[in-house]
Protein 1
Amino acid sequence: MDKGYEKERFETLKIKASIAKAFRKFAKSISKSQSIALLLMLEFFEENGISPAETFGPRMETLENRITTLIKKRMNGMIAILKDIEKNQTKPTAAMLLKLFEQTEPDKKALIVEKKYADENKEVRFREKKNFKSNDD
């Protein structure tokens, strides 16, 4: 019995005897029931977007062209994703890390001196004490 299809009823298809015989032989060769063999064939055609009426030519050129087109589309998508990651994540992160690890000395700024003290004479003056007692006295 086919797994997942145990409770479904059987339907009859009208096909020619020679085609039925060939189909039964094909189903046995892939070790599947006739229902599952037909289901697999239908899924194959739908997933790959090919028609049984199409000819592939001597080297399956049509299928090769479709696969090539799909690969190009996927590659273009991956390139777009990588560029976006580089633009929005890698470059800003690298710039931040570079700034963190830069060993530049901070700029030495001139001291800001209040204007009234800047103009004064910078000489140091000492006052003499008048009431100084010396040891000699």
Note: Residues 3 and 36 are 10 Å apart (CA to CA).
Protein 2
Amino acid sequence: MSLIAIDGRAGAGKTTLAASFYEELSADKTVAVIHMDDLYDGWENALSEHLTQTLESIVKSHQSKVAFEIDIFNWKSMSFDSKRVIHPVDILILEGVGAGQKVVRDAAATLYWLDIDAEVGIQRVLNRDGNQIASQMKQWQIAQEIHFLRDKTRENAEHIQSSPA
């Protein structure tokens, strides 16, 4: 279990679960968490081939136990404007919509899927991030559903849990 992916619809609690895993596992292992929000290329290009290629590179570097660098997306400037170095760790946690895609699963990742009703999820996001992103979130819901159908993410999860309403 050196690679964990936590996926599911927006607002399902993926970040919270990742933080819980980090706290529990880092007591006796080295652990890093990568948030998909840092890797997305804005709203329109988030779940693109670029993300898949980035995840493939991350997975290969983790498996090879070498340090690697990721570009971090700044949602205010809408550009990649910083980098983060990930040093070799015992356990790498990828969390966010798209974290559990096939390229990650093929690397023997343990995939957790968090179920949530789409409307409950979007309301959680808007409560957290503000109503100014409501139109983007409506489009995001469509994009994530297309991604999940194409990738069959939920169907390939080892662990499925429901988020509370």
Note: The longest helix spans residues 134-151.
Protein 3
Amino acid sequence: MKDVHKFDSDPDGHLFDPHVRSAMTAFLGDGDTLALEVAAAVRTAFHAVERMRSHGSEGRGLSSGALDILIRLSAAPEDGVSIGDLAQAAGVSSRNVTGLVDTLERDGLVRRVPDRHDRRSVLAQITPDGRTWLESFRRPTQLAMAAMFRGFTPSELTRFRHLCLRLADNQQQLAQHLQGEGR
């Protein structure tokens, strides 16, 4: 299995990936590798969660983006949600959401419906099959995530969530800053 990682512990008992540390040390020379090691650890954790998520999707092959859209639609008003609103909520482009909705629509999990309030607009709406699919996905997801985060205290999970979202917020602020410089 090529996705198996072998981790070591530093003197304080914190895990690290010796292969990543070695590669980052070679890349930077004598610079501090910690931020790059953390970025690699975030990618490793993301891929671990994705492998578990895709394992639980029972071969249906929904990407994490499509699953996110389906979950958002399940909590949306019954009339549906515009592609633009879905994109904004998910933090991705409308073009990306259009492709995800196309995939979900092809699978019968989502449909496009006319907006009752604006004839020019189309809304995405979860179908009964989409709700059924999510219902069958719910319990295995709960069990898988409980297993993935086994041994974490509620305080650690809260802190972990906070740190991940701080990282995402820093990226958004940096992107806005860089966009401002490009003008």
Note: The two ends are 47 Å apart (CA to CA).
